[in-house]
Design a protein that fits this description.
alpha+beta, four-stranded antiparallel sheet, globular
Length: 229
């Protein structure tokens, strides 16, 4: 689980035990005020519709990108699938993204892979259908939803002392950069890096997360404003 500071909604990351063959991102988001009603099915579909238009105009290889509906244990969801026109180095070719209602929560999700996308999407959607809300609803600051199913959560790896600060914001030329986890301490090992101030072409306008070599990251972030301790 990735928990940014300042009560920003957390992101749950599911992935394989090794390698980068697929990734599933889930971001449970609660209403910003106690008296605000949860998003309606019409709100969810409209949000997904806007993401479809962005995908078709900018980065989907397909000219037709239909919206599909799913029904979960405690609410509806909408999603769409597309193929990246120009997959990024180290990224994924196939993308499924949408929003699911889980109790009071809206859960944007993105499923990416380079192969076996149908099987990965099927298992991920089955997991989402079983999701339920736990705890204090809109006021909850901790993880507000629990997900049941067979999946592996990619936990942050231990960092090398004085090298990289995990799950904290660096500031590089006015842009925030967060190193979420690294698969190893080797310079040629890959780290997952989040750029919350960028719009993500690959995830339909959601916060992008990229894979970058650890050695390159260390060099790049040395010239940036360091996270506050």
């Amino acid at each position: 689980m990735q928990q940014p500071p300042n009560r920003v909604p957390p992101t749950i990351v599911l992935g394989p035990a090794s390698g980068n063959s697929f990734q599933v991102l889930l971001t449970p988001t609660w209403p910003d005020t106690k008296d605000r009603a949860p998003d309606s099915p019409e709100d969810l579909r409209a949000a997904v519709g806007r993401a479809v238009q962005r995908a078709k105009s900018s980065y989907a290889a397909e000219s037709q990108v239909p919206i599909q509906e799913i029904q979960g244990r405690s609410g509806p969801g909408f999603y769409f699938c597309y193929t990246e026109r120009t997959p990024k180095p180290g990224g994924h070719k196939f993308v499924t993204t949408g929003i699911m209602r889980v109790g009071e929560l809206s859960v944007p999700f993105t499923i990416t892979s380079n192969e076996n996308q149908a099987a990965i999407v099927g298992q991920s959607l089955s997991l989402l259908k079983t999701a339920g809300q736990k705890g204090g609803g809109a006021a909850a600051a901790a993880l507000p939803a629990t997900l049941s199913g067979q999946a592996t959560v990619a936990a942050p790896a231990a960092q090398s002392a004085g090298t990289l600060h995990m799950n904290s914001y660096y500031t590089c030329s006015g842009e925030r950069v967060a190193v979420l986890r690294c698969r190893s301490d080797a310079d040629d090992g890959y780290c997952s890096v989040q750029y919350p101030d960028r719009k993500s072409a690959a995830t339909g306008g959601m916060t992008p997360e990229l894979a970058e070599r650890r050695g390159d990251l260390v060099k790049k972030l040395q010239g940036c404003q360091q996270p506050k301790s």
